[in-house]
Amino acid sequence: MHLCGFLIAGPVVHSHAIWRNPAHETPFLSLAHYARIAQLLEQGCFDFLFFADRLAIADRYADSHVAGIRHGDQDSTRMDPLPILGAMAAVTRHIGLGGTRSTTYDAPYNIAREFATLDHISGGRAAWNVVTSMNDGEALNYGSVPHLGHDERYDRADEFMELAFKLWDSWDEDALILDRAAGLYADPDKVHYVKHEGRWFQSRGPLNIPRSPQGRPVIVQAGSSGRGKRFAARWSDIIFALQPNIERMKVFKTDVDAALVDAGRPGGSKVLMAVMPFIGTTRAEANELLALHDSLADPVAGLSTLAAHANMDFSGLPMDATVNEIAASGSQGNIAALRSITPDGSMTIAEAGGVYARGVMCPRLVGTAEDVADELIAIIDSGAADGFVVSPAFLPDTFESFVGAVVPILQARGYLRSNYAGGMLRDMVKGGAQ
Ligand SMILES: Cc1cc2nc3c(=O)[nH]c(=O)nc-3n(C[C@H](O)[C@H](O)[C@H](O)COP(=O)(O)O)c2cc1C
To answer: What residues does FMN bind to (predicted)?
Structure first.
């Protein structure tokens, strides 16, 4: 079973209650907070952790930033993940380190440098969550209005990846010589111009960084529309998904497997499903934790995040209108998943605000550590996933109880490594090194 810890460098993750933890403050602007989480997840033998990211505060809801900023929604604060990952590399040795960057608002040369650098300084532990970005706020921040259309963003992303891969390949593996006596730094014949001239990008190259331990970062992707799945099937090592229940997980996994076959890469990518555990020493305690959590998740913050995901201001609709009235130009996959929760289309916008605030549709696994381990194992055994993106309800509390109580059960039952074998992240996610 592959495990990834889900993070955002801000007050909120999928759960919009995180920063309101009544037990203690959540110091989400401090490095110590992230260093502690990285070490904890490494203690739990997670494959990797990753920071989701977006490039704008949310202001689609009521065409204003007020709801999101007042209540602390998913986009109210997001620090840049890459510097934090660099610091995490210094305090860990094995766990993979993933960051999100956008193919719509960044340049291939920048991205190639950032992840080559992270891969070098972490000894082959870098991963890039490739996103195409979702909403007009992001376009406005980068002076690129209007936001490119949904499928066009993926077209641009295809060329972005082609160029990034060329840049990572521009240094041969044995180009760096470092013959100190002869004064030979590197072999110029093994460092290549890329001379890329495309529809979206021009870049001469080569990269100004020698080939990194993994050659390129592990590529993660989470598009869930048809076009998104085709993109992921072509490029990714890992696919993240968020599906509300095991039936939808199975449908998603079947679709992805077919897309991988179409892309000529059968079995070429692992599917990790997002889940949000609530772990108690008894079931009653887990249910109390869930109730406490949900009482702190403000539906207005959920509506603000939902509007940002849909890239639509639906505040003019009545609260009892159904979610079928929401037409997404942002994340098509997320809105389709929201509709699928009530197949008769009866979920109202008010209810969707609650669902989003409590965990953006992440299925919640509630019970003792045994119960949670049983559910994870059942999903793996059913073939609906290769692993999980563990999304916390409180930080670092959820990861503490998961690592302290669920991980030992998964290890004892042979579903999770008990220590790291010392390979690189790509070896780990391919199932090679355990
Ligand atoms: C676990 C997970 C993590 C994601 N992380 C991000 C993220 O960091 N930034 C982002 O803009 N979208 C993120 N997404 C959303 C997808 O990357 C994708 O942008 C979105 O679903 C739109 O693509 P689609 O229309 O193909 O579904 C994430 C989705 C999942 C399931």
So the answer is: 53, 100, 150, 154, 224-225
